[in-house]
Amino acid sequence: MAILKSQMSTKMYDWRVGSIYSALSQAGKEQGPLEVSDLLALGHLDQYHYLGVSACDEGIDILGLNENAVVLDVGSGVGGPARYLSHKTGCQITAVELQQSLNEMAIELTQRVGLEDKVRYITGDILNIDLEQNHYDHFVSWLVFLHIPNKEKLFSTCFNALKPGGQFLIEDMVALNPFTEKEVETLETVIFAPDVPSCDAYRGYLENAGFINIHFENLSVPWTGWVNDRYQQHHAKQAEHIMLYGEEVFHSRAHLYRKTTELFNAGNLGGMRITGEKPQ
Ligand SMILES: C[S@@+](CC[C@H](N)C(=O)[O-])C[C@H]1O[C@@H](n2cnc3c(N)ncnc32)[C@H](O)[C@@H]1O
């Protein structure tokens, strides 16, 4: 499984580093201080989940984040959500990311927007790092857990990191209906999602870890619209995107976006916002 994960991170996410440098350079912002808004203008390059920064805004409202909150962000990518949450609310964030190249980019961007005292980064697999226990008021995770098949260890790690009474917010893929064999193969080989559980199975994992007040909000309809739009926009802006990403990345993105769109359109793959808490 470790091999699968490292293949996943290199194949799926490495391209983002070069593309961010390229986009910043095209905006004349290769070096020097940046505003968070400069990074939000990069859209999906900064916020690599569905529905962009509005998903973070909803998370902020649901969790009631403010300057006193201590937050763990699991699978933080290039730090887009972590920077935005801290910029908007003043909260302190520890952001954990598997892939070193993404974390190096995250650290550089965070320094350039002046948030380095608020957001710290740990490079490593969430399943194998030393996290403070009973420490965090909240954990958040946008579109990451689909890549982590060992849900038992994942949720017990997250449970132990939260303070008693701490809350979480996850956005993740779920199985709305059983997948076809072909869909299982696409999930494994294209999306690198080796275990996408049903809502019942997901709830079971969370309850077994000790979480309570678990709530699922079905995001499948807006996510389906969003992935369809992403696929169309990718092609509509082909020349611009090839300039930004290069030819090879453009085509590999097109393949991933098409396969993801097909999965959502077929109706067996869905998306959920899942919230809950650790008992007092
Ligand atoms: C779809 S991206 C989402 C990034 C970020 N949450 C965002 O919304 O911009 C998934 C991220 O999860 C990271 N990831 C996958 N497995 C992980 C693990 N076991 N521990 C930490 N990060 C992981 C990947 O490297 C990738 O950056």
Provide the succession of SSEs.
HHHHEHEHEEHEHHEHHHE
Number of strands: 7
* Radius of gyration from the alpha-carbon trace, in angstroms: 18 Å
Summed up, the domain count is 1
Helix and strand composition category: alpha/beta
Work out the helix count.
12
In angstroms, what separates the terminal alpha carbons? 35 Å
Q: Flag low-confidence runs.
A: 1-6
Architecture per CATH nomenclature, i.e. the level-2 architecture: 3-Layer(aba) Sandwich
Summarize the model shown.
With 280 residues, this protein is of the alpha/beta class. Helices cover 51% and strands 19% of the residues.
Describe the structure.
With 280 residues, this protein is an alpha/beta fold. It has one domain: Rossmann fold (3-Layer(aba) Sandwich), CATH 3.40.50. The chain contains 12 helices and 7 strands. A 7-stranded mixed beta sheet has the order 3-2-1-4-5-7-6, with helices on both faces. The longest helix has 20 residues. The N terminus is likely disordered. S-adenosylmethionine (SAM) binds next to helix 1, helix 5 and strand 2.
Distinctive features:
280 residues, alpha/beta, Rossmann fold, seven-stranded mixed beta sheet, disordered N terminus, binds S-adenosylmethionine
